[in-house]
Write a structure and sequence with these properties.
- This protein has 148 residues and is α/β, with parallel strands linked by helices.
- It contains 4 helices and 6 strands; from the N terminus they run H-E-H-E-H-E-E-E-H-E.
- The protein has a 3-stranded parallel beta sheet with strand order 1-3-5.
- It starts with 56 loop residues before the first helix and ends with a strand.
Length: 148
């Protein structure tokens, strides 16, 4: 076996349909476009979403809901995650840099600490927001919760 003997699998390649190349090709005359009408003309292009005059999908369906432009998208970090990070890296203070280095958040994300899980170590936590129960849990073990 060598490179010159390689061929594509049977049925893997098809010859291109060469329309408009005379009557002998079998695809001359109207060139597979049928007779008359907009689709037979050169430069034909249908509108996006056009369904042949039928009421298009975007007009048949009702409109609902809205997007709040003032929404603040927080990245949620749980107490169990903080405890795990403190155990692994032997930390007493966890801020945005430590969370970034561990891969929990990206550079532009806003962090909110939530109370899921259990916190055993005394940790000083710095974040943009805290849930009330998370703040109580951090202060119960002797840590501090600092808002940015």
């Amino acid at each position: 076996m060598n490179l010159s003997s390689l061929k594509p699998a049977v049925g893997a390649t098809k010859t291109e349909k060469r329309t408009g190349r005379g009557p002998g090709s079998g695809l001359g005359g109207t060139s597979t476009r049928g007779h008359k009408g907009a689709k037979a003309r050169s430069g034909y292009k249908s509108k996006k979403g056009f369904e042949g005059g039928q009421m298009p999908m975007q007009r048949r369906l009702p409109k609902f809901g809205f997007k709040n432009i003032n929404r603040v998208e927080y990245k949620a970090i749980n107490l169990s995650t903080l405890q795990q990070l403190a155990d692994e890296k032997n930390l007493s203070k966890i801020g945005l840099e430590e969370l970034r280095d561990a891969g929990f958040i990206s550079k532009s994300q806003i962090v909110k600490i939530l109370a899921k899980g259990e916190l055993k170590a005394k940790i000083d936590v710095v974040a943009h927001a805290f849930s009330k129960t998370a703040q109580k849990a951090i202060e119960a073990v002797g840590g501090t919760a600092t808002k940015l």
